[in-house]
Model the fold of this input.
Amino acid sequence: MQETANTAGDAHDTRSATGDARSGTRRMQAMARGGPAATAAPTPSPPDDALPGNGLSDEALVARLRDGDAAAGEALVRRHHLPLLRYLLRVAGDEHLAEELLQATWLSALEHLDKFDSSWAKTGGFKAWLFRIATNKATDLWRARGREKQARQGLKLVVDSESPDAGHRLAGSEQSLKLLRAIEQLPENQRQVLLLRYYAEMKFVQIAQLLGCPLNTALGRMHKAMLKLKELMAE
Done:
């Protein structure tokens, strides 16, 4: 009888652990669909350093998420949600499309979490892996919907003439549509470097690793992109 009870207890523990993992996955999916606010209660937010997982590395959080720890997934979303959204807003040129891409990126990351491994530590870590997924999703969007439609959206960008390194920033400008169309005319590889540098705020070393090209190639693409933009804006 005791052995039977132990076996039943083990089975219960297994079901409980499986249920916890599934529950964690569902919570992570909800976070992916709605961002950090999706699970936020209408109460004052705790200090950042009091939130679960905030003192852990991305890699440690991923390991915990794989074990069904939904709080680890929520910590990853909190950490990368806004930078990823800013990047996708610039890429998509439309808030609704950016939200669609954001959700697709997080859900894809969750679905393919097993593909993130230690080899990414040398290529920008979890952030680079996440932005690669986002870039691929955005590329699929461009191919499916066409670039001209994206260029017609109302993102307002302006070139900072004081410093070429300052790049392109959101601003109210009557030339916003012209600049958007100029960006859309850039070759795909140049546009990717431009967006990753200024809107994902990545270093050139990370960009080169993310795109799988030499550092000098990434720098060269940026240089050509800036020259082409100035030429197009002068027309």
In short: The beta strands are 157-159, 168-170. The radius of gyration is 21 Å.
